[in-house]
Amino acid sequence: MSDDAAGAGGSYRARVSELPANERPRERLERLGAGALTTAELLAILLRTGTSREDVLQVAARLLSEHGGLRGIASADVATLSGSHGLGGAKATTISAAFELGRRLALQGDDARPTVTTPQDIAHLLQAEMELLQQEELRLLVLDRKHHVLAAPTLYRGSVSSAPARIAELFRDAVRRNGSAVAVAHNHPSGDPTPSPDDIDMTEAMLRAGALLEIEVLDHVVFGHGRYISMRERGLGFDRESD
User: Fold this and answer.
1) What 3-state class would DSSP assign to 24?
2) 91 and 9, same structural domain?
3) What span, in angstroms and rounded, lies between the C-alpha atoms of 31 and 22?
């Protein structure tokens, strides 16, 4: 059983004040390192305090249970987290910032920025987060000449369409960052990654704009629940490149 499940299942019933001083989360981290702590303990350190009814470890365990584990918390926006009992704006933003730092670290890699050349590379970077999102988001990967990732901004939350203004903003970001290529990804909260007619129209518009700006559009990937579709591989929107 994962430590997410253990933390959510009630392993932490003792209050922090009842634990020996050297067994409390902060002291355990200082003594043993962060890797020795469970997910609930690490989350409790971010939360800092509990409520009048629940110890901070109990709040952390409940949040893991309510959101289906760590990934569920990572995919929740600040407003959703703020609505959970025991949290508020300050704690919710702390949690959100921690996950964003982790995401940026994953993009940087150890020695160099990740390289994106295939749909699998895009999925490796984005799928774990995007397939859990409760609303549609459009993500952009800005790439240099060797297809190293320069940036991975979120461009839109909500309905993603082929509106010209959105296409313009997509390439405005790439031009500003001196990108030579881009890859685009968005999610379908329904769980079905099948591209819609609007998705195909948007891809065709991106290709036309990219050709004018001499910025390659590497792919447009759509994420569902547990699977994804590469529109380039399916020839959806990319079938007119040679026309």
Assistant:
1) coil
2) yes
3) 8
Global pTM value: 0.59
> Mind listing the pLDDT tens digit for each residue in 141-198?
999 999 999 988 888 887 665 455 578 888 988 998 889 999 999 999 999 999 999 9
User: What contacts 24+ positions apart, CB below 8 Å, involve 46-52?
Assistant: 46/91, 46/94, 46/95, 46/98, 47/86, 47/87, 47/91, 47/94, 47/95, 48/91, 50/16, 50/86, 51/85, 51/86
Residue located via tokens 């020695």: 111
Is residue 241 in some structural domain?
no
Question: If we measure between CA atoms, which residue out of 89, 82, 11, 13 comes closest to residue 54?
Answer: 13
CATH number of the domain within which 115 lies: 3.40.140.10
| Alpha helices by DSSP H, 9-136 | 25-32, 39-47, 56-66, 70-75, 78-82, 89-108, 119-130
Nearest Cα to 145, choosing from 116, 176, 107? 116
Range of the domain at 20: 3-106
With contact defined as beta carbons under 8 Å apart, do 217 and 179 qualify? Answer: no
